[in-house]
Amino acid sequence: MRWTVHLEGGPRRVNHAAVCVGEYIFSFGGYCTGDDYRFSESIDVHVLNIQTLRWTLLPQRRDENGTILKYPEVPFQRYGHTAVAHKDKIYIWGGRNDESLCNVLYCFDPKTLSWSRPPVIGAIPGARDGHSACVIDNCMYIFGGFVEEINEFSCDVHALNFNTMEWRYIQTFGVAPSFRDFHTAEHIHGRMYIFGGRGDKHSPYHSQEEIYCPEIVYLDLKTKVWHRPSTTGKVPVGRRSHSMCKHIYIHMCHTHHERLNFSCINLPTVIYNNLIYVFGGYNGLLDQHFNDLYTFDPKANCWNLVKPHGKPPTPRRRQVGIVKNQRLFLFGGTSPYPHATAQEQQAFLIDNNDTNVLDFEPSLKTLSILAVVEHRIDTTWLPRELRLEIKAMTQPNSISRPINHAG
């Protein structure tokens, strides 16, 4: 396991949302300190080619007269929202700008690069930001967040059925996780795991007396019962605005070959153990940003602090982490200014524009490329394909703006 890539020059974004479809990561919205988010400008969409590691800013959508589409035809620029992929579409929900929140469901088609507003029925959740969303079977489950209309943190569960496009409030049993926002959610074995987030001593109200729960909790989607497993190992400090994802450790029984994969694979010769990964985040009581990496084994209920080889990303919060095949792509977020004193770090924060890659099983070719770069070996004698790979892994990004081919 090794951090293999660190590239500057990507989109400078905080509290954005992203998903991977095919060989591309689509990143939606977010903000950058100093920009104006009071008005309903259309959301921006950046796309990362995970093979070339190059970013592209998609052109704004226009109508038949060439006029740029605005809200409500397309989502307004926002932060604290969620994005999920279901089949061949991407769904954006929630979030806010500096003036208002949104609870309208938007659908983005990666093939046509177009937006739509699917009609929905049922009990639509109140507008919020800082919630979590994950897809289990044919439903998107929403948990928590901060609902500004009632000025309260939430610990409710809502589900959108993609087959019927109906929203439902999910009645749960047992003791729910505490009211919180900017936590994370992941699903494994028919369970929705919740970790981290910011709450309040006087929850659900927001009194500025923050709490950070270090427990991991899961909802059994069959029984709708909340569980608090008794865990062992090194438990992460409570935090918010971190990244959480899962991977599958695969053992090929007939070849004794081991590899990592982030997709659900159903092969008769495979024995697998799912792990949850947690990276980074921020604890306001400690005033500390993190760049640590933990695993949680939901079968053994065990936490483990892992230390990959290579140079890790700087401590940060509000970044995005996306997994695809054997790699974790992590980009954006906010970090404390490296030369500030401990007292100054909260006032001196940097919005990052870097892209980092963690390779869970780097190939011999990848390790060789890293050695070539580290020792500054002459590459002119290498095949063109290898030189291009080295260039992609080392040359800073310059976001391209293509011609609007989709109309």
Automatic annotation (TrEMBL):
Pfam families: Kelch_KLHDC2_KLHL20_DRC7 (PF24681). InterPro entries: Kelch-typ_b-propeller, Kelch_1, KLHDC3-like. One of its GO terms (molecular function) is chromatin binding. Keywords: Kelch repeat. SUPFAM superfamilies: Kelch motif (SSF117281). The keyword Protein biosynthesis does not apply. It comes from the Eukaryota. GO terms for cellular component: cytoplasm. This is Kelch domain-containing protein 3. It comes from Stomoxys calcitrans. The lineage of its organism: Eukaryota, Metazoa, Ecdysozoa, Arthropoda, Hexapoda.
